[in-house]
Amino acid sequence: MKTAEQNEAARQIDVKYVAQLARIALSGDEKALFQKQLEKIVSYVNDISTVDVSGVQPAANSTAEQNVLRPDEPHTGLDQETVLKNAPVNDGRQFIVPKIV
Predict the structure, then answer these.
(1) Who contacts 95 (Cβ-Cβ below 8 Å, separation ≥6)?
(2) What are phi and psi of 15, to 5 degrees?
(3) How far apart (Å, rounded) are the C-alpha atoms in residues 42 and 17?
(4) Which sequence spans correspond to the domains of the chain?
């Protein structure tokens, strides 16, 4: 159940000020609508804060997976000649690219 303090916290959110910070022009109807929506959001957050989580262990991840990456194993790469075949321009040792200043 909502307490008077929780309802007051929701009412203290100044929609006009928040809209000004976001540089959004709101009509009077929009301000009233958003105020009601913000009150519902704050009420929902307050409801969540009443849930008993005393037996729940803190978790950094939602799954028990630790490392899902493959092992880092060295292997031979492509030889220089094969790589340079993909270059539009090369000098036989390296790629030639336009100078960028």
Answers:
(1) 84, 87, 89
(2) -60, -40
(3) 17
(4) 4-48
